[in-house]
Specification:
It is a single chain. The protein is of the alpha+beta class and 246 residues long. 36% of the residues lie in helices and 24% in strands. The chain is built from six helices and five strands, in the order H-H-H-H-H-H-E-E-E-E-E. Strands 1, 2, 3, 4 and 5 form a five-stranded antiparallel sheet that branches. The protein starts with a helix and ends with a strand. 13% of the residues are buried.
Length: 246
């Protein structure tokens, strides 16, 4: 009986050893040197990049993984955008001088957005008109070129010397159409024609209305030119020229 038990035990022990050996041969052993699972979203080209850092997009290779190059003509962004036939839909007619000018700007600064520019120009137009009426030199200085600011400042000073006050209220900016786009080197100029409705009245020192009307909505048309050096750190466009009327 004892011999029978020993034989059975030996058989089971042999089977157990065989099973363990097969499992190890199939699954392998953990040595502590295994490669982690592949993550396709992890940067593979730089050993000193931070885990959460985004890859740098550049048209050129860089030895410094921490340098993020500003978008330029060498990037693929501009060609991809310029390949879209509807890229200036609602802004300019395809193939027109304005469209070609916008293409040139995108070629120099792919991040440029014409619709965003137009909305910004409308906001700047309203701010400048109100700031001029209120004699707000600080706001004007931040939005105008040096030459234009000097002209506005002279007009405000003359008005103040006569004791005149201007009250202006915007009703709406009905249209902002890009008329001309010009690029000389990296200096871009965009001319916009604004059509707006506003209420404006100028009062003399005695409080009498001498220009405009306090209860009449007037249709106003202005053509303004904004300028900016592309790729510069300053994102602001400055007003460099104004023209009233159609």
């Amino acid at each position: 009986m004892q011999d029978s038990f020993d034989i059975v035990t030996i058989v089971f022990l042999c089977l157990a050893v065989f099973v363990i050996w097969r499992l190890r041969s199939v699954l392998g052993q953990r040595t502590g040197n295994e490669r982690p699972p592949y993550d396709p979203f992890t940067r593979q080209d730089s050993g000193n990049a931070k885990p959460d850092s985004a890859p740098a997009f550049s048209g050129e290779a860089s030895g410094d993984s921490n340098v993020v190059h500003l978008p330029g003509p060498a990037n693929d962004v501009a060609p991809n955008r310029l390949a879209d036939p509807d890229r200036w839909k609602g802004i300019a007619e395809s193939g027109s001088p304005v469209a070609r000018g916008l293409d040139a700007i995108v070629g120099a600064e792919p991040a440029f957005d014409a619709k965003e520019f137009r909305e910004g120009a409308k906001a700047a137009y309203e701010m400048i008109v109100i700031a001029f009426a209120q004699g707000d030199r600080k706001t004007l200085k931040a939005l105008l070129s040096k030459e234009v600011f000097e002209g506005f400042e002279r007009a405000i000073t003359e008005r103040e010397s006569r004791g005149e006050v201007v009250n202006t209220t915007f009703v709406s900016v009905d249209n902002a159409e890009i008329m001309v786009v010009d690029l000389q080197g990296l200096v871009a100029q965009i001319t916009v024609r604004f059509v707006s409705k506003l209420i404006t009245a100028t009062y003399d020192v005695d409080g009498k209305v001498i220009d405009g009307a306090a209860d009449v909505v007037a249709d106003v048309s202005d053509t303004w030119t904004f300028s900016r050096t592309l790729r510069s750190r300053d994102p602001n466009w400055l007003l460099i020229a104004t023209e009233s009327g159609s």
